[in-house]
Each structure stands twice: as C-alpha cells, then as structure tokens.
Amino acid sequence: MAGGAERVLRRRIKSVQSTKKITKAMELIAASRILKAQQRVNAARPYSEQITEVIRNLAAAGAGKGAALLEPRDAVRTVAFVAVAGDRGLCGGYNTTVIRTVEREMQRLQAEGTQTRLVTVGKKATGYFRFRGFEIDDSFVGFSDEPTYEDARTVAEAVVKRFEDGEYDAVQICYTQFVSAGVQRVQLKRFVPIETDLLDAAEKSDGPRADYEFEPGPGEILDRLLPRYAEARLYAALLEGSASFFAAQQRAMKSATDNAEELITKLSRVMNRARQDSITTEIMEIVSGAEALRSGQAGGSDLLADNALKVADVVGHHDLAHSHAHGSDHRHL
Questions:
Q1: The domain boundary residue, chosen from 227, 258, 289
Q2: Is 297 a member of any domain?
Q3: Hey, which bits of 164-313 come out as E strands?
Q4: Contact at 8 Å (CB) between 75 and 232?
Q5: What's the whole-model pTM score?
Q6: Which among 226, 243, 258 is the end of a domain?
Q7: Which residues are catalytic?
C-alpha cells in the first residue's frame, strides 16, 4: 500500500470520527431538550383546558352567536395557511413533511379555484417557499426551539387581524403533533374561524350544569376570550412542534452516529487489509533478495574470474594430452 493512500485513509477516518463526536453530542442535547419540551407542553395544558371550559360555560349562557371568530364565511374565496416548521435542519423529515403537506393542500385548493395565502413560522419554511416563488404575507423566525406565549400572541394577532379585516376567509394551521419520542404526526387543522364543536357540545349536553352570573355579559366576555383562545391553540401547536423537532433531531443524529461508526469500521478494515498486503509484499521481497544473495555467494559471484579459470583448465588439459602423445611416439621409435 502506498504511503499516500494510507495517509488519505487515516485522514478520512479522523474526519469521520470528528463528525461522529458532533452528531453524538447533538443527539444527547436533543434527548435532554425533549424532556423540557414535554414539560412545557404539560404546563400549558391546564390553561388550554380552563379556557375551553370557560367557553363552554359562556356557550351555555347563550353567548357566541355572531362572534367574528366563530361564524364561518358564506363564501370561502381565500384560505390562508400557517406553516409551523423549524429554524434549523439536521432533523430528518420534520421540516419537509410540514412543507410538503402545506404545498399539496395549496395546490389542491388552487386547482379548485380558491385563492391561497401563506404565513410561515421557522426559517426552513420561509426559505423554502421564498425559493419556490410563493408570496408570504408574514414570516416569523427565531423562536421555534423554545417558543413563548408572547411569540404565539404575535403570530396569532397578525393572522386574526387579517381574518377580521376580510383578507382571509379561513385559516388552516399545519404543525407536527408530538405523540411520543418515536412517533410524531403532521396535523392540518382549521385555525379560524374557530370550530363550533365546543359550543354545540355545550348546548346538547344533558348533564348537570353550573349556573354562572357573568359581569359584563357573556357575549362581551366571549369576544375578549376568543382571541386568547386562538393564542392558546397556536401556542400549543408551537410547543408540539418544538418537542417534535427535538425528537426528530435525536433520531436523525442517532442514525448519523451509527452510520459514522459503521463507516469508520469499514475504512479501518480496508486500511488494515491493505497494510497487511503491503507488509506481506515487503517481506516477500526481502526474503527473495536474501535468497538470491545467498545463492550468489554460494555459487560464486565473479563471472569473469570463473570463466577465466575454466578456460585455463581446458587449455592446461589440452597441453598435457599433447605432451603425452609426443612422448609415447619417441618411446616407440
């Protein structure tokens, strides 16, 4: 094995090892943040449950008729989408799944003749749709990892205002629901007008009800409460998306770490096998050279001297034979 090729393999193994350290660290960080994200989801749940209960009570008192955020439009000409993605990548298909879901739904509505508008949350969604030439009404970035209620309020106020002003006839929100560390599902739900299932359930309920007195009236309270309810729903979606992001990132980084370990093993085997072949070749060359040297020393290594001696022996034998022949002739005479 050439020394240059061995250096290339060593350099590549070190590079993969460095990458493995990074992916392992990111995996551990994501795993620790999943727990914190779950805790934030659980902490926000009581507020959402209580505000839902208050809306039920207001509905039972006769409120909700004619509220702007509750009444569906007669003709839905413009539908807006709120795409909740992440600010960062390295999280598998987390961002891609949300983006593709929104894009397919927008294309379906456009084919039916409905206009679509777009509001993005997260750098990845914003960058993708801008690159594809989509017109974005509002974009919000920088808080997808740890969203706060104020972030949700900012997004909700912008969307609700456009809805109340008549720019949007309906708004749908697309986010990733956190089921468990191994399961996350993309959800596409109506955001505004707020679904009236809660009001219908309250009106049809046959169970015992508490009798409340409201000051000011139920309608005025509901008008103030519905924007808070929209903010709470959006905040829950942001929290679910944050937890889903870290879960997806943990899986992606674990897969990258495992792949790096497998690649290091393969490269090490290639380098060791090539090194063994190189060592074996060198040993064979040394042994062959030593054997050739030993053979040369045993049989004589000076070819000129050897040939000269052979010629001298032949000449000497010929002269001796000739002298014997002349001697015998003289004795015969």
A1: 258
A2: no
A3: 170-178, 184-192
A4: no
A5: 0.75
A6: 258
A7: 91
